Amino acid sequence: MASGTPFDNDFALLVAVLPPSLQEAVRKLPHAELLEVVMDLGRPPEARLVHGVARLSEAPVDQEALQAVLSRVGEPGGDNRAGIERTLHRVSAIRNRQGRVVGLTLRVGRAIQGTIDMLRDLVESGRNLLLLGRPGVGKTTKLREVARVLADALGKRVMVVDTSNEIGGDGDIPHPGIGGARRMQVSRPDRQHDVMIEAVENHMPEAIVVDEIGTAAEAAAARTIAERGVQLVATAHGNTLENLVLNPTLSDLVGGVQTVTLSDDEARRRGTQKTVTERKGTPTFDIVVEMVSRDEVRVHRDTGAAVDRLLTGADVGGEKRRQQDGAVHVEAAPEVVEATPPGGRVPKGTPALGAPRPGPTRIAAHAVSRELLERVLRDLPVEAVVVGRPENADVVLTLRSRANSPRLRRAAERVGARVLAIKRNSSTEIRRALRTEFHLLEGVDPADVHAAVSDAEEAIQRVLAEGISLPLTPRPSRLRKVQHTLVVKNHLEAVSVGSEPQRHLVIYPLGTVLTEASDTAPVDVEEAEPDDELEEDDALEGDAGPADDDGVAGLEASSPDEDGS
Questions:
Q1: Domains of the chain
Q2: R3H domain location, by residue (predicted)?
Q3: Which of 95, 135, 207, 244 sits at a 20 to 30 Å CA gap from 396?
């Protein structure tokens, strides 16, 4: 539980609404651990604790017991919720098809000071703050404390839009847990967005606190409030930032998502597919906090940048904060590569979409035997795991005949996954594709391969970002072929120049090699020759399936140099 001194949570008033046969059993439970009491018709009543469930009685709940509780709290409203006046406790009803109450959930409400110590600096910043987390993780408790701190500690004019009376408690007089903040109740749940706008227009607040934004109308109202210069603190349905981005109803809270078709030149410059997913606009909330548990959160200080990284498949980052023994422990966000801004140039050092994520490479088998794939992976010295769906993969292995499936391509493009196409569903074909993908060369020191790949990747990023040509370090023929494969994947061109042992690749932006060659001595384009064990008719098969509309993969075929490469 969070540190701090709890307000009087009127626990005795919650116990008093229970049937007499259950009151003593509830009093014996540890009050700080109790979350809710559950009463379902025909079942034994239970108490749900932070760390488990306790049965309160062996006798099943009958209709008289349910009605006895309802008679003490009043009939639930349109949202099937009722409360105990001037307390934070909530009573929620479950009804049958005829509208009769057949179950009750009595949830304990608490106001705890100090529960937002982890977020105090964010609240004081004046920026819009959104809390995400699963039910029961303490979002509303923190929201209530935010309202008190804004009103009492910071002296702001605060308005709480309280749809189900969870923040300020039941009754006309709000609970002291919200301090000096004012509270507007909502007559029906579907009117929450109207009351949000009314709060801004009629009461001149400096900050507005809202619980559970869940509809498109409420998301639009939140954007209206933010655009009027009022600080907005709210919670929303969803556990993580990714959940929110994928929710079409609420994605506008973090900037919205749109699919954009790029021109051929722009796709080459970015090193991406022609169809990409981008953030639509400015997020409503400047900061997003993912609540991992009651005492641990992950903070995204720049919502727009975090969403951009998420859409490119990069590590979304985030600052971890944990509250323990009255102290806040902050783990700084790891250094992440900034994603390409919508319509912007590729920043220096930014990997193309589909670059490997941290950890083992995730491979999905599409129309290919998963058993064969797993067997081949066991024999290869690579860090990779097999996943079930292309949407969760970094690499999708499929048959050449299925590589152009629109559904597969859309799934791969959505997450930036690379598609490897093989001719037949056999272990030999799978091994061949994976050896090429992971740059495994027989008889070559893996450290030399890694150095050659790193050299090429760094040069590729500079060429993409700056539009210049760059020479690579001299390498043996087989390593130059690996480098050339990377060049082609990133929609660039390379020529092999010099004599052994100083022969090396020079990387050019696409379309510049022919122009330069017409004015200078002839140069040889490095040919991506198959491994020695491969059949000759497989040599033209690319890692990502057929060539794109501009025939980029066709750059691999050219006149060989003197060493046969």
A1: 6-107 (3.30.450.90), 117-331 (3.40.50.300), 361-438 (3.40.50), 446-508 (3.30.1370.50)
A2: 446-511
A3: 244
